[in-house]
Input
Amino acid sequence: MEQLKTIGRELAMGSQGVWGSSKEFLELVKTIGEAKSKAEEERIVLAEIESLKRRIQEPDVPRKKMKEYIMRLVYVEMLGHDASFGYIHAVKMTHDDNLLLKRSGYLAVTLFLNEDHDLIILIINTIQKDLKSDNYLVCCAALTAVCRLINEETIPAVLPQIVELLNHQKELVRKKAVMALHRFFQRSPSTVSHLFPAFQERLCDRDPSVMSAVLCALYDMILVNVKPFKHLVASLVSILKQAVEHRLPKSYDYHRTPAPFVQIKLLKILALLGTGDKAASENMFNVLGDILKRSDSTSNIGNAILYECVRTLTSIYTNPRLLQNAAEITAKFLKSDSHNLKYMGIDALGRLIKITPECAENHQLAVIDCLEDPDDTLKRKTLDLLYKMTKANNVEVIVERMVEYIRNISDNHYKTEISSRVIELAERYAPSNQWFIQTMNQVFEIAGDLVPQKVAHDLMRLIAEGAGEEDEDADSHLRSSAVQAYLQILKEPKLPSILLQVISWVLGEYGIADGSHSAEFIIGKLCDIVATRPGDDKLKGYVVSAITKICAFEKAAGQTVDLIPECVSFIEELYASHSTDLQQRVYEFHAVLKLDRDTLASILPMDASCEDIEVDKDLSFLNSFVESALANGSRPYLSDNERRGMGAMTTLASNNDAGTSSLLRFQPYEKPSIPEPAAALVTASHYSQDAIDQHDIYSSAITVSTSSKAPESSSNDGTRLKLEGVQKKWGRPTYTPEAQVPKNPINISDSVKVSSSAAGKEASSRNSSAPPYTERKQPPQEISAEKKKLAASLFGSKAGDTKAKPAAKLQQNGTSKKAPAKPTSPPPPAPAPPPADLLDLSDSLPQTPSVDPVDQLADLISVDSSAATSTTSLVEQVFDAGKVATKGPSPQASLQKDAVSRQVGVTPSGGTNPDLFKDLFG
Amino acid sequence: MAIRFVLLVNKQGQTRLAQYYEQLTIDERRALEGEIVRKCLARTENQCSFVEHRNYKVVYRRYASLFFLIGVDSEENELAILEFIHCVVETMDRYFGNVCELDIMYHLEKAHFILEEMVMNGCIVETNKSNILGPIQLMDKSF
Output
């Protein structure tokens, strides 16, 4: 046995020439392959790094050995370790004369280095040299490297040579040159913008592979700017036609489908060119119809083309007949048993409903099935679809589904994404404020700190503004229910900071407003909030402000406030806080407590967060003071400008400006260019004559005057809402006066109106047909009935309709159809042009080359491809049979493989990882 | 850019081939590979072959013990990519003759060359097997 192994090893050494790698390398690969755990793999790789570091430095490493080392470095990096110590050797290997070594060198460099790496500069020269090589394979190796290594700054170094290679006699070189230019376009469009005509010329290349490379480039260019390429529509349509009609060489087929990847690329390009362009789109209808007819809907690749076709049809100018076909294809996808096709179907449906919203109704149950499928990908895709088709009448169901979904996932990325969608939908379509607040609370609870701060502000604003200023009862009801809800939520552990902020603000503002909770109780709750998150300064700020407000309300109402011990210690602690903001807040709190009742009532009035703070710019309240001062012989006040004009005062005034400018700039009345109104006149004789004093007095007067209104704003500065000139997102738009105001906020017509005015566009249709909104129905017994109901609530009928009979559904669908009539509704369908016209058009294309390049080429390639097809069919037969047949086209290679495997001591039966040998198709 | 990476990973989660068409650091790659593979391995046969991960959509297909994963952007046709994976495997199969995991491990550079011919700048440029293998076979002869 031992002997056998030795012989095997010797044989393995002997086979080195064929394999190009040593026994040692095979051993390494084998041990990595058989590593049972990540830790074991790690150990192997670390040992490998040590040995490579040593050996790669040795002088006179044979070139082939060096190639092996470099491939081992590739392994090291692939398995997640740093191999930068060997990069330079990879760079050196690109100089090698041997093509395989050179290309391996280039490969390693492209895998190791990104385009901004310092070593790149060492390769530019080699690339330049290789681009000029007589051996076209060397050229190709260099061009492949160009696609990975050249950055914006080095483009000019190789650009001229690559442009030359566009006309190389070998199609392989032309193809790679096109791709190199494509890469330059991706990096820096301006460097190749002058080459658009050259690209178009290559589009007519006699080799289809060059043509299809140009398509890759064209797609990206058209994506940036459609205009310069509009004239290509006819040529592209003709190429697509040839591909569809199987006029490209057979070797481009994939499972008997003619050049599917070329077809798909062309369809993508046509979708871009036909968007909003009737004339261009009409050119395409014929060939698109052809594809729909010809594509094989039983194979994956056929369906891929059909799906792409649906995408194209939904982005170009609409053709009703073809859209009908697209809808049928989508239906087929959705009805399929394959999850892949269902997924594509959901995506296609999402595109179709943008144009024909009513088509969603035909697929209700299929969509519900996908929504409830255990497959997460499918579920999420369906949520995407629902997001797209959300309207005022189904928002509750859809949002409920989304909330349920985010509740059950842990991936923060999707939590953020979907919760922002929930917020968006809720803001846009909320049927009532109550519902909106509930939904927001759920989102905060689940997604917590992933929710942007702005959403919290909007929520607080909604609670503050309520349904509208006209209906105080409704508002206070809304607020007390919010307070109730929040007190309930507070019982739960581990709430996110942002929700606690909202809660603190609401409790501070409205906690004692309806009289059902005592100030002590609310303050106690607020102190509890802080206790749950000891390190959260922002939250502390909210809580201090809330406590301040509650104390002020109580005192203003004539009650005495006895602070509970927790609160006292909390406040005491903050006097020494590191945060100056917190310190300021507690000092303000302290100051506020000392004020008398009337002052408190005016500086912190109850429920005034929405009131505009009016600043008396004229300081009229000082008038009597000024008048008495004037009567006592003071000098009248001179405005800044007037003072500047007086020579004697110039220096004084400017000093004064310098000294107090920062102070002055904060005063709202101070507009430098406009002189002060004459009403504000002060004589200085009362005070020492100089103007600085005068200013001090002045500013302190202002401080007093504003402080009677302003402290409230400073007391909750983070939460203060800017209300001036802001249109409400939900609720009644501030700018549009409502004729009628319902008394109850959850009253039916009100909720409809709220949502409808929010939805804006749908206002008229909804107001006329709005049925009563009732509470969500109970979960039904049967699953199928539940699904039906869900379908009904999603697709147009009302949630309150528990019966959801088909007839009723139809009727409701009829009404809901009106609702989605968007402003962006598609233009009136163009009549389908007679096919004959288009045929003519495609046959008499002026832009296309006079001789069909592809046909020409078909002859050139036919020899090649016939050889190829024989093997293809062999492979296909093997696949079709679904079992492993004889060893493939090169039995010799397979034998050698087996031999070496034995030699290195790994056999399928004996090895620890027999899978390594399993043929991929096995 | 459509295709953002191509990964070959076995069912133990070990990377067998990795090609990225955008710049990621080694640590980012490592994290990405770990997360994606975990997601794909957790899926069953009759779930769909697409997984969303961060901003990628990952299309995957399993052959024996080996997973082929292609990360694409949101504009890509998933079904076409699924078939493209099969096209890659067929091409490798033609080159190696009944390709298996170990072939790819022993001939990592060849597997990369095949991929380089088929995907450039994140685009599918070639699916014609004779066009793909022609230059590689020529190179083998010259060695």
